[in-house]
Specification:
Elements lengths: L7 H34 L19 H6 L4 H27 L4 H13 L3 H11 L1 H19 L5 H24 L2 H33 L4 H57 L2
């Protein structure tokens, strides 16, 4: 009994459930970040006289980070989000690549096609698994179907195989590209959030100096240091997200190229062997 072919409807349902799961994960990460900021970085042991309303102890970085203000847990959430989805994409794309290297798999499929061994090619797809194998298997199934068809000419059969490969690719791409938009978004907003936190921290620092009367260079330096924590967190998170996004898009492009290569081999082999 063959498995049911995925449909656009099924893809939409999966996309909706995936979006909900992503939202819940981010909410959970914010809760974790807030607890770390409030109870770990904000621990009284990190501050003068064990009072979080006072300055951090000299050289105490957790206390300095805490003084960065309420933007800090949001920035920590973006950092945790990048880490979680980097691992998720890494695992998913490794699984999508299949059991062996995609280029070796495509070369093997070409060999099977040259020998007109469709059953061997299908067995190789079942062994390989992954996105590339799924698309090639769909194309091979249509290839075998077109060999038996008598009511279509060669060009129509070639187009049917090509269309099947394109449809299978369209169904696989959302899974490959899922959550990349989150990395792209974090790459764009993390630095801006960091700058926002810095500006708010500077406003608080200068307002406190104004209320204190005489300028205090030590207090001003401490306030600026606390404010710049946000910029540092934002820049680091943004850089990490950009690197991860480019790495994963490169891997997806490589897989898509292998899919196109396999689809081209299917159509060209069919066209050359059938007149």
């Amino acid at each position: 009994m063959t498995a049911a072919k995925p449909t656009a409807n099924n893809q939409q349902k999966k996309s909706g459930s995936s979006a909900l799961m992503t939202f819940l994960i981010i909410i959970g990460l914010y809760a974790l970040a807030f607890c770390i900021w409030k109870f770990v970085f904000g621990s009284p042991a990190n501050f003068v006289d064990n009072d979080p309303s006072k300055d951090p102890l000299p050289g105490n970085y957790p206390g300095t980070v805490y003084k960065g203000g309420p933007i800090v847990p949001i920035l920590m959430t973006t950092f945790f989000t990048v880490i979680v989805f980097v691992f998720e994409r890494f695992i998913t794309l490794n699984k999508a690549s299949g059991a062996s290297a995609a280029d070796a798999f495509v070369r093997g499929i070409k060999g099977f096609l040259d020998r007109n061994d469709i059953s061997g090619a299908l067995a190789a797809c079942d062994k390989q698994k992954g996105a590339v194998a799924n698309v090639v298997r769909a194309g091979l199934t249509k290839y075998a179907e077109m060999e038996k068809a008598t009511d279509m000419d060669k060009d129509q059969k070639v187009l049917a195989i090509q269309k099947e490969v394109e449809e299978a690719t369209t169904l696989e791409l959302p899974m490959l590209e899922r959550n990349l938009s989150i990395l792209a978004t974090v790459a764009s907003i993390a630095t801006l959030l960091g700058l926002l936190g810095t500006v708010l921290g500077m406003i608080r620092s200068f307002a406190a100096l104004a209320n204190a009367g005489a300028p205090d260079s030590t207090a001003l330096a401490t306030g600026i240091s606390e404010a710049l924590i946000n910029t540092a967190l934002g820049i680091f998170t943004s850089a990490l997200a950009i690197i991860a996004y480019n790495f994963f898009t490169g891997r997806i492009d490589a897989m898509t190229y292998r899919i196109d290569e396999a689809g081209y081999s299917l159509t060209q082999t069919f066209a050359s062997k059938h007149h």
